[in-house]
Amino acid sequence: MQAITSKLGHQSIKHSPAISSFKSLYPLSDDHYYGYVNPRFASNIATGGTGPLVRKGTGGRSSVSGIVATVFGATGFLGRYLVQQLAKMGSQVLVPFRGSEDSPRHLKLMGDLGQIVPMKYDHRDENSIKAVMAKANVVINLIGREYETRNYSFEEVNHHMAEQLAMIAKEHGGIMRFIQVSCLGASPASSSRMLRAKAAGEEAVTRELPEATIMRSAVMIGTEDRILNPWAFFAKKYGFLPLIGGGSTKIQPVFVADVAAAIVSSLKDNGTSMGKVYELGGPDIYTMHELAELMFDMIREWPRYVNIPFPIAKAISSPREFLLNKVPAPMPVPTIFNLDAIQALATDNIVSKDALTFEDLGLAPHKLVKKCLLNLIHEDTIWIIFERLVQLISASFTRFLEYSRVQPDKEEK
Ligand SMILES: NC(=O)c1ccc[n+]([C@@H]2O[C@H](COP(=O)([O-])OP(=O)(O)OC[C@H]3O[C@@H](n4cnc5c(N)ncnc54)[C@H](OP(=O)(O)O)[C@@H]3O)[C@@H](O)[C@H]2O)c1
């Protein structure tokens, strides 16, 4: 955090009013050229420039949507759904990644040849950020983390990185849309440090780019989610599930692909979503206990539920936080016993009454049971159901044949 903060403090980005070319992508007209008025940063990709925004084709994967999006955090959970939806409509997606070359590999097949461009970068090297943004006209920030590491604090990841991206996007001069993904419940008054950092991140982004769109997502559910999967693993391993605070906190889980669809929908609108904050929650509100029961019912596991009062849960999760910067070794990733997440559980996390939601983006979020939980049923289970169905049909058919063979005999008698 300190490194980034001091770096940001000394960099040459000017605090000018919002950039003039920050417009909606649709409708497209001649004066919406990007990279025309303002020079772009040097880049290590594509050489011929991207020219004016044009849409060509039928709107499928091999079309040209006119969107060239740099998606920060694309290697994460939401990233894979967002990249897939962007690529499916013929967008070019620049995927900044850190670490191994393998981390963006699964994304490459989601788009047409050359449409998904992984680019190595380092968030502490401003030039590498400029390079991955150079050819883009859209920037989407999905970077976030719900626990601290020895190298990165909540504030650095959830606040300062967002601020830095907004500053660079502003200086860039050709970014037409900036979308910041935040968390439902982000507030400077939250008891969670992560949610306070998210709120500060939102505030910094809108200060730099008032036209930026903020998407506050509720807890996301999907194949790779970080709520149901840890519960299922824990219950399978230990035969019980700890319910922190009795599992009475209310949440409004949302299907991950719906959040991706909301981002894409806001890019496609007429600029109406610019400068607005959306709260993206699913159609139903559950307590943590209800959600766990729903999931375990679906996967046919019935663990015991053990109530863990808040003070005990905090005591169990504290040693990691205490030792984090004291032990010269990486600490385990917290799952169920994450101190900051436990602090957040003290209050319900649901969409506020007057917030803009999916409806305002012309979307209806999927119901959890229908859409997401069915995805969690293992393929084998589907095969077993299929086999049983075949057995049932063939048994009924055999019985029918036997019955029709028996009938003439009965008549003879
Ligand atoms: N998952 C949820 O239920 C949920 C709910 C509400 C809001 N959100 C927010 O939605 C956004 C996307 O969530 P997600 O579940 O897709 O997150 P995720 O799976 O944890 O992915 C986070 C992304 O951020 C990157 N990242 C994390 N720390 C970084 C660092 N220090 N430097 C550079 N990159 C870093 C990760 O890169 P690596 O792959 O290299 O680590 C990854 O690409 C986040 O902002 C999250 O806070 C998530």
TrEMBL record:
<dbReference type="Pfam" id="PF01370">
    <property type="entry name" value="Epimerase"/>
</dbReference>
<feature type="domain" description="NAD-dependent epimerase/dehydratase">
    <location>
        <begin position="70"/>
        <end position="280"/>
    </location>
</feature>
<protein>
    <recommendedName>
        <fullName>NAD-dependent epimerase/dehydratase domain-containing protein</fullName>
    </recommendedName>
</protein>
<dbReference type="GO" id="GO:0044877">
    <property type="term" value="F:protein-containing complex binding"/>
</dbReference>
<dbReference type="InterPro" id="IPR051207">
    <property type="entry name" value="ComplexI_NDUFA9_subunit"/>
</dbReference>
<dbReference type="InterPro" id="IPR001509">
    <property type="entry name" value="Epimerase_deHydtase"/>
</dbReference>
<dbReference type="InterPro" id="IPR036291">
    <property type="entry name" value="NAD(P)-bd_dom_sf"/>
</dbReference>
<dbReference type="GO" id="GO:0005739">
    <property type="term" value="C:mitochondrion"/>
</dbReference>
